[in-house]
Amino acid sequence: MARNLFTLVSVGFALGIRAQSQASSPILVSRTPAGASNPIPEAFVSYSIEFAFFPDFAGNISSPNTFSDNLLNNIGSLTGTKPYIRVGGNTQDYALYNASLQEAINGIYNLARSADQPTTVYIGPSFFESYQTWPGTKFSHGFNLGLGGNNSAGWETLLETAPLACKALSGGKLLWWEYGNEPDDYSGSSEWGVRQASSWNEPTYVAQWLNGTRAIKSQMAKACPEMVSKATYGYLSPSFAGVKGHLKPITTFADGLDADDDIKLISIHNYIGGATKPGITLQGTLMNHTSNVHSASPILAVRDNLTYTGIPFILGEMNSLYNQGAPGLSNTFGAALWGVDFNLWCASQDIKRTHMHQGTDYRYASWQPISTNKTTKGTKAPYYGNIAVAAMLGDLTRNSVQVVNLPLENDEESAYAAYNDGTLRRIAVINMREYNYTVNGTSSIPNPVPRPSQAYTFQVPSDYSRVTLRRLAANGSDAITGITWDGWSYNWELQQGKPVRLHNITVGETMRVKRGSVTVEVPDSSAVILDLA
Ligand SMILES: *[C@@H]1O[C@H](CO)[C@@H](O)[C@H](O)[C@H]1NC(C)=O
Ligand SMILES: *[C@@H]1O[C@H](CO)[C@@H](O)[C@H](O)[C@H]1NC(C)=O
Ligand SMILES: *[C@@H]1O[C@H](CO)[C@@H](O)[C@H](O)[C@H]1NC(C)=O
Ligand SMILES: *[C@@H]1O[C@H](CO)[C@@H](O)[C@H](O)[C@H]1NC(C)=O
Ligand SMILES: *[C@@H]1O[C@H](CO)[C@@H](O)[C@H](O)[C@H]1NC(C)=O
Ligand SMILES: *[C@@H]1O[C@H](CO)[C@@H](O)[C@H](O)[C@H]1NC(C)=O
Ligand SMILES: *[C@@H]1O[C@H](CO)[C@@H](O)[C@H](O)[C@H]1NC(C)=O
Ligand SMILES: *[C@@H]1O[C@H](CO)[C@@H](O)[C@H](O)[C@H]1NC(C)=O
Ligand SMILES: *[C@@H]1O[C@H](CO)[C@@H](O)[C@H](O)[C@H]1NC(C)=O
Ligand SMILES: *[C@@H]1O[C@H](CO)[C@@H](O)[C@H](O)[C@H]1NC(C)=O
Ligand SMILES: *[C@@H]1O[C@H](CO)[C@@H](O)[C@H](O)[C@H]1NC(C)=O
């Protein structure tokens, strides 16, 4: 009885009046992980936090940001490991150390350069307290190469902060170190320009990187001798903005970047497009599997070329649209669906981890850690996509999980299968066809435009008998609130980001598998995971 009531309410809520599609031909799903990724390492779903905003996200010892910690724990309880946190970004290369500074950070904005980030940055000793607020979390700390390579204050900062950083990250908190953010952009014109293009090349970069990292190591050898052994000391590098910039990753490695044999992860950054670039749309750019495949493809080619190094390859900073995202695109439920497709595509292609970049007031952020006069504190739409990816991967510490893409016909949809220890367990479908619940500029509930759905038929081995559905749902691709994962809300205003089961969303839908065939309806602009039993 109660169940029927839920269903009535929620069908009306989630789907409006449905216009169902024709069932397409069955999608074959193999019993074994043929063509799938290698087993996915733990903490695949990870974050990168802009250096200057790390104190906002993490708080400090007397005032830890427990909201952020709750959101990290939610992902940890799905995947078995809390997300790894890379602390870095443009502002890592602006940061100078001031030992007398009382606050964690003093950031000065230059609106001609950026309204989103301070471009003059001083950090004080208490900056490093922020590494103490999230139990059981591993971090990378980004040192300043932009100013450190050729400026005496920058070099002093390197020498002074290396001991503080190694002490802060001792006792199992260290992922790895990083020296320089997007050095392939250092000679870029307006935004940065901290090196001259004529003399900024791979050999010069390699020389400066080796010089600086050796200085970091010798400082750490004095302050934290246990952290400079072969097993405990290393870098993610080169943290280039991409693979086609002023410096090329392949050349950089050929020129001896890893001469000291201390690079533990090859890290490259990626965005699908630019926040203010013309022609960017939700449907065309983000809710588009082909666009995601095209975006990843040159990176995968470079990754393949660098396989000879034997170093795992990650996206150490990524998100939807660079320059902190665009309102109406990067902050919507559509961008959450983008994140599900892009991250699962990366997982299926053996990218070992993705760090989704975050910052205070960023349009693409998964959450806003504090209240500001620009943005309300809260869990944002993209976070729900991160949760769905975590749920699709499952506990990576207990199972060997492999993911394979299941090719579909259209740009606006994708599907993946996940295997635990070689056994098919989950199928994800992402229906990225755009469905606006805002019509002609005003949100109209009930929506006069019926919400279409697509039928997906899967052919699985005939010994499966039942599937249970978990849905990623919202009123439309343009929704920025009211998003749920399997009926859970992680919103700040409910339980400070801890999971809360809502009672007005359908959960626990099950379907029988008949002779290996199962058909699931997926409303446009939504995703679903089928758990197979
Ligand atoms: C979503 O639609 C339902 C009606 O179907 C409405 O009650 C609810 O307020 C909407 N949510 C948002 C966030 O607009
Ligand atoms: C360092 O911080 C102290 C205390 O706030 C301040 O007086 C001093 O001017 C700062 N130095 C620089 C170089 O910003
Ligand atoms: C810790 O954070 C609180 C709240 O933001 C702030 O008031 C306090 O000054 C911070 N302490 C230090 C040492 O930075
Ligand atoms: C390393 O960099 C520092 C700071 O720029 C410089 O003083 C030093 O000469 C460099 N060492 C080498 C070997 O290049
Ligand atoms: C050193 O940095 C300054 C900016 O601080 C830049 O103008 C200059 O070109 C850099 N020098 C070299 C050799 O890269
Ligand atoms: C999806 O992206 C591809 C590649 O950028 C593009 O050719 C195609 O037109 C896009 N599809 C839609 C529906 O916009
Ligand atoms: C890697 O790239 C280099 C330079 O572009 C090229 O010469 C080499 O053949 C490539 N190696 C492989 C294995 O693709
Ligand atoms: C918004 O907050 C920032 C940072 O605290 C402050 O500099 C700015 O003046 C505020 N703007 C308005 C309009 O209040
Ligand atoms: C949704 O809204 C966007 C932005 O107004 C518009 O470009 C797009 O065509 C709309 N999509 C649908 C399916 O109405
Ligand atoms: C939206 O506006 C267009 C153009 O004015 C109109 O044709 C259409 O019927 C409107 N749609 C709805 C659902 O009101
Ligand atoms: C479902 O419940 C939540 C929490 O009480 C509420 O915010 C939301 O508007 C409800 N949604 C609908 C469609 O009634």
TrEMBL record:
Keyword match rRNA processing: no
SUPFAM superfamilies per record: (Trans)glycosidases
Keyword set, alphabetical order: Hydrolase, Signal
Signal peptide location: 1-23
The Beta-glucuronidase C-terminal domain, residue ranges: 415-529
InterPro entries per the UniProt record, alphabetical: GH, GH79_Enzymes, GlcAase_C, Glyco_hydro_b
MF annotations from Gene Ontology: hydrolase activity
Protein's UniProt name: Glycoside hydrolase family 79 protein
Source organism (scientific name): Oidiodendron maius (strain Zn)
